[in-house]
Amino acid sequence: MNNKLLKTRGIFLWICILMLSFQGCGPDDPPIEPVVKADKGITLDFTSNFNGQLINYNTSTFTTSSKDTITPLRFKMIMSNIVLTKMDNTVVSIPNTFGYVSFEENKRLVTLPAIAAGVYKKLEFRLGLDSAINHSDPSQWGAEHPLNTVLNNMHWGWAGGYIFVTHEGNFKKNGADDVYTYHIATLPFAVDISVDLQNTLNHTQDNVGVINVKCDLNHFFDGDNAFRIQTEGASSHSAPAQAGLINKLRANIKGMFSASAN
Amino acid sequence: MNRPFNKFYIVILVVLGVSLLQFACRKDISLLPPNPDYVDFKRPFGFPAFIPPKDNRLTEQGILLGRMLFYDPILSEDSTQSCASCHHQSAAFAHTNTQFSIGINGNIGKRNSMALFNLNWHVRGFFWDGRAATLHEQTLMPIEDPTEMASSVPAALKRINGTVRYKQMFYKAFGVKEATSVELGKAIEQFLTTLLSADSKYDRSKKGGPGLSFEEMEGERLFNTENRPDFMIRGADCFHCHGESGLLFTNSEFFNNGLDKNLTDLGLFLTTGKVSDKGKFKAPSLRNLAFSSPYMHDGRFKTLDEVLDFYGEHVQLQSPNIDPLMKHSRPPQIELNAQEKEYLKAFLNTLNDYTFISNPAFSNPFKN
């Protein structure tokens, strides 16, 4: 064998080795696990009750302090402008983060992005949206975004924007079945909520913090204003003419929430 | 001199042969579709984002296969009835002029065939009673419904896999030599996914095209206005359940709209078992109403006038589980006058999509 032949054989052997090596990297191999970046955000977990009692939407019946007998059917909220305050009074705003909560559909989690570590004592958020967001093109939001209109069914249309708070249900009117439908919308009727955490949240960069937010529907009818459905009105659509009724409910809604960290 | 050279090439050939055998034995590679032509789904202007099925990417082969299956009576037990028998393109894929469709054995269905379009956004279930959670799940149910195709999925698959044409098409679309219920559902799902209705006069006006007439705009205003005579506001209050938000004209939720004081069809209750769901049915889209009469889950109304008369004067307020949205207007009935009804109908007619009902991509492929 001459040198040329030996060289040719060597090249062929290397090609064969390479071919077999490449097959070892084929699609049958188990996929490489992606590196999962730890989520260091905070989750708000909303639950509802009526004066401490569990609510089964569509079936539970309660009596308000104003002696209305009610059966809640729906309670939904859109929220924005979420702010957390640390023990040292440092205010941490979380812009461009929105939430949608629907108790009867058990949609109750609002996920916040990563924020600075620290000990937090207060949670604030707005039930409602700023005008620019409220009247922007609703088709811009992703499929799982809280403002996706198919997801939340809280959008009235381009003119009206989103409903910020919906509470609908049945009540007894002079012994007969009747309904209440309260729809709170438009910027003047947004509701700013501020809640001191019953126990502080020690948020580190290693754990997802959870704040449990309880929403007492009893306060909807019995907060700053004792609200009798029969006398105050069983329906609101946030027309300016209904400002009196809406503002009574807004004042009550401010007192609906309590929160504590896990 | 020649012998070692030949030995060397024998070794090379053996190695190459083993390599080729290894490739050939790998199932996933041998079954890959030869040339899948992926199709990008184009979300119509103004429509909300949605989550596409993660395991069923659209391909030209899959869509064509689904379209053929939709129009092929092979799915029914006696090969006489296809999906298209009760879902006509000219009727926006509803069954017009028929209150109840008749299955292969002469069994009469108990509900009106729903129109089929913009199904990707039906996130709360399919059918009038929501018995299918997903579009994929929905595709196979009519095959086994005794009032429709009255067959079984295995029997339908046997018929399908017995044809050379479908075997080839399933291979090209999904890379399988024999179709299973998974690929059958995926194919029909792909075709149904493409049924987009987004080119009505209303859609064009939203995109900057010719605007609506005065009558149509008055109708739109009534459509989107709650009826509050106590505040001197007159409205038809359609939007709570059929809102124009997202251009879908349905929120895809389930309601008892007060058709009957005594319920004869329990609707959503039959799916969920919840007493509070008795009498609830899916709110359909109000697009394409001119093509898809009759109306309501049981097709009881033949004309839009009958529908408006019902909402104006005949809502059964004592119906069990009637939705609060049906009662909250004061007074409870919406009393539109004749002029207002004409306005409202004029607006509803702007939602008719003539492009959709004549789109050749959705037509019967066996007639081309």
What report would you give on this structure?
The complex is a heterodimer of chains A (262) and B (368). Chain A is an alpha+beta fold. Chain A has 6 helices and 15 strands. Chain A has one domain (42-261). Chain A has helices at 3-23, 131-134, 149-152, 218-221, 229-232, 243-254, and strands spanning 42-50, 53-54, 62-63, 69-86, 91-94, 99-102, 109-112, 118-127, 155-157, 161-173, 176-185, 191-203, 209-216, 235-236, 257-261. Chain B is built from 15 helices and 2 strands. A two-stranded antiparallel ribbon of chain B has the order 1-2. The termini of chain B are far apart. Residues 23-30 of chain B have low confidence and may be disordered.
What is the top-level CATH class of the largest domain in chain B? Mainly Alpha
> What is the subunit organization of this protein?
heterodimer
As a percent range, the share of helical residues of chain B equals: 25-40%
CATH architecture of the largest domain in chain B: Orthogonal Bundle
Series of H and E elements of chain A? HEEEEEEEEHHEEEEEHHEHE
| Overall strand count of chain B | 2
Unreliable sequence segments of chain B: 23-30
Beta-strand content estimate of chain B: under 5%
CATH superfamily of the largest domain in chain B: Cytochrome c-like domain
Identify the overall geometry of chain A: globular
Which fold does the CATH topology of the largest domain in chain B refer to?
Cytochrome Bc1 Complex, Chain D, domain 2
How many discrete domains of chain A? 1
Task: Give the overall shape of chain B.
Answer: globular
Number of helices of chain A: 6
The computed structural class of chain A is: alpha+beta
> How big is the Rg of chain B?
26 Å
Rg over alpha carbons of chain A: 28 Å
The tally of beta strands of chain A, per DSSP, is 15
Task: Provide the low-confidence segments of chain A as ranges.
Answer: 20-39
What is the residue-averaged pLDDT of chain B? 90
Give the termini distance of chain B in whole angstroms. Answer: 68 Å
